[in-house]
Amino acid sequence: MARIYVIDDDEQLLRMVGLMLQRGGHTTNLIGNPVDGFDQIMADKPDLLVLDVMMPNMSGHDLARKIRDTPEIEDLPILILTARSQEIDRATALESGADGYLSKPVTSQELIEKVDDLLTQKSGTPKTEQGIIIALYSLRGGVGQTTLAVNLASSLRRFSQKEVCLVDLSLSGSQASFHLRLQPRTSWADLLAGSTFEWAEIQKRLIIHPSGLRILAAPALPQLPTVLSGEATTAILETLRQNVAFVVVDLPPVLSSAFVAALQASDMAMHVITPDVIAVQTALNVNRAIAKANVAMKYKTHVVNQTTTEAPIAPTAIEKALSARIAFQIGYDANQPRALTQGVPLTLTNAQTVLPTAVNRMAEVIWQRVGKQE
Amino acid sequence: MSSKRYGHVINLDLFTDSYRVTGRAVVGAGGIHAALADPNSDFLELEDAYISRIIKPGEIITSYALVAFRKDNINFIVLQDRRDGVPVGTQHGRSVFTRGRAVSTFLTVPSFEIKGDIHHDGQLSPRAVLVHSMGRFQPIFEATASASLYPDISYSGDLILVQKERIGIFCLQSNK
């Protein structure tokens, strides 16, 4: 959740943009005058500014230039939102110092995506030497979370051609290995026996898939939730972060200390849900439980994964129920059962079906937002 | 600004010989084309208009709450939605502006060249298009206007309304 200031002289548009951003989970301050806006920005230093161009007294371009010339707030991400919709207007907006540009009318989804994009860029900028941790979680089984984790890791590997590690924190056997047709002889459980979580130790436990993807597998036999502590989880993930470009973590459906530690370590937490009543109700309760446990996540998003042919609930209804935006939607893919049997993730094939198309798009977005900064 | 409005508000880019003006107009069901054809007024009024020079079209040089233009001096108007410009018809049939086949066109007005499609019903000739069509502004759909002396500067819109009297060259049916 970010603090976003919106400056627009049109009162109706100001309110509408404010509502869109609030629905995206942000807090807003709506300002009708650019001169007052500058003073408030100086005083409060918000996380992002959404700025109109055509305003009396001072244009949005002039305000953007003034912000860039003021050392205290020169790094403030600025999104220009204007009715001037020509290519020359985009160029002028970016020349004036804005980080992004959208033309009116704008849809809620376009606005939230662009805002999230700029916020991710801002939070990701200082970590140029570190990898990105992406955690996939759900406290309801059968939502296709492991399928997504395996395919996302494979796709990131293909896209980035950098080191990508899939961490399977499952407590009910090595689920990710089945998807990749691997028979791991080692797992994170072997790390727990040692006293350190140095890179050299972790490296010995990594399995390398023919695609180049590295896997830290879960133990073959089911484990008690207490086996993996929060401290150990944090240490393992932080070491991996220092040594690989992307760490994709498949979390167990158990609210354990390892679960909490992984979410807190992550740069991007993806809550996977299926479009049905029970999944949505569970997701609501998971959100409440996570809030109650004061789990601080840097960036949280929802992913709807349709695992059956029917989707009883529409995405808009899910967004309304969760009061949150769905960042990614993956439709039903009839090829997935066969891919699982064959042990080849669909994103490693040339299939152009629903799941690989959506997951590749997801990987591309993540790669564009955070990966390229390296 | 008037507190009582009739019709709906549209955003538009309007071009004279030397200026680009972005603003809002209140139009009725006939769109801006009907307001331009209104014989009771020689002027078109815009609200919250922001004015730029054509050679620096991104930079706003001044703005006013109310601006009036002599219709004769408007070269063309760029709209992002054709429904803001002309009636497009209903599900039962297209309007007089959108009926017929799409024909590619290229035309010039002072400082600009414009490419796009016209919709024409019947035998095709420049005369039929320019003389017999309704109103003083010619609708060009899915159009792009490029500055003749600065070809990098261009404006695209779902609809561009071009003042017929300002047209210099008028070409129909591209050979490409």
What spatial form of chain A do the alpha-carbon principal axes imply?
elongated
Structural class by secondary-structure content of chain A? alpha/beta
Oligomeric grouping of the chains: heterodimer
Number of helices of chain B: 3
CATH class of the largest domain in chain A: Alpha Beta
Instruction: Give the biggest sheet of chain B.
Output: 10 strands, antiparallel
Please work out how many helical segments of chain A DSSP would assign.
15
Name of the top-level CATH class of the largest domain in chain B: Mainly Beta
**Taking Cα atoms only, what radius of gyration of chain B do you get, to the nearest Å?**
16 Å
- Quantity of strands of chain B, as a count: 12
What is the compact description of this entry?
Chain A has 374 residues and is an alpha/beta fold. Chain A is 44% helix and 16% strand. Chain A has helices spanning 11-23, 34-44, 60-68, 87-95, 108-124, 145-160, 175-180, 188-193, 199-205, 230-243, 257-265, 277-292, 315-322, 336-342, 354-369; strands spanning 3-7, 27-31, 48-51, 78-82, 100-103, 132-137, 164-168, 207-208, 214-216, 246-250, 268-273, 300-305, 326-330.
What does this structure look like?
- The complex is a heterodimer of chains A (374) and B (176).
- Helix content of chain A is 44%, strand content 16%.
- In chain A, 46% of the residues are buried.
- Chain A is an alpha/beta fold and 374 residues long.
- The radius of gyration of chain A is 22 Å and the shape is elongated.
- In chain A, α6 crosses α15 (354-369) and α10 (230-243) runs parallel beside α11 (257-265).
- Chain B is mostly beta strands and 176 residues long.
- Chain B has three helices and twelve strands.
- In chain B, the strands form two sheets. Chain B has a ten-stranded antiparallel beta sheet. Chain B has a two-stranded antiparallel sheet with strand order 6-7.
- In chain B, β3 (43-53) and β4 (62-70) form a beta hairpin.
- The termini of chain B are far apart.
- The model of chain B has no long low-confidence stretch (mean pLDDT 87).
